[in-house]
Amino acid sequence: PQNHRDSFFQTLHKRRTHRQFSSEPLSLSQVSSVLFHTWGIQGFLRSPFFGDLPFKTSPSGGARHPIECYVLALRVSELAAGIYHYHAGDHELRRIKDGLEATTVREYCADQVYPHRAAAVFVMTAIFKRTMWKYHKPRAYRVVLLDAGHLAQTFCLVATRLGLAPFSTAAFKDSLIEEHLGIDGVSESALYVTGLGVPAS
Fold it and tell me: In angstroms, rounded to a whole number, what is the distance separating the alpha carbons of residues 158 and 189?
C-alpha cells in the first residue's frame, strides 16, 4: 500500500481497544488535547439561514453537532477527581460533581472489569432537538447515533496519536449516569462511553 510510512496511516493501524492501563495519571494537557481534537470547535462557517455553523474534526448531519461530552476524571494531574461538562465553545471544563470513586465508574459501566481502571472516562450524550428541529423525520435519531460513532473513532485515533490507550463501550447504565449528570434522559440522553489511560507496560 502507498503511504504506509505516513504518520496518519501509522496511527490508523496502531489503533487498538485497550483494557489494561498503567496506574500513572494522565496530564491535564493530554486530556485537553483529546477534548479539543475530538469535541472541540475548530472554526465556524457563516450560513445565511442557520447562523454560525461550527466546524469539528468529525462530520455531523446538517452541522448540528448534537453530542455533548462529560468527563469522569479519576487520575488526571491538576484536575480534581470528579465529573465535568466540557463546554466546546470555550474549551472549558465545568465541574458538576466533586469526588469520584473508581467503584462508581465500574457501576456506571455495567460492572465491566476494566473501565474504572482508566484514568479518565468520557460520556457522550445527545441533545436531540439540535438535530430534530431541522430534520423532522424519525431517521434523524439514526443520524444522531452516527454522529456519536464518528466522534468515538476520532477519539480513538487522537488518543492513539498521543500515545495513550483508548477504549469505547456501549455497555453502561443509562439512567444512573443520567441521574448523576443531571440530565433527564429524554431531551438529553447518554449514548456512548469512551475512556483512556496511560498504556500498561
Answer: 25
pTM for the whole thing? 0.94
Write out pLDDT tens, residues 47-99. Answer: 777 778 888 999 999 889 999 999 999 999 999 999 999 999 999 999 999 99
**112: closest CA among 167, 163, 159?**
167
Separation CA 116–CA 118 (nearest Å): 5
Sequential DSSP letters for 45-110: EEETTTEEEEE-SS--GGG---EEEEEEESSBTTB-SEEEEEETTTTEEEEEEE---HHHHHHHTT
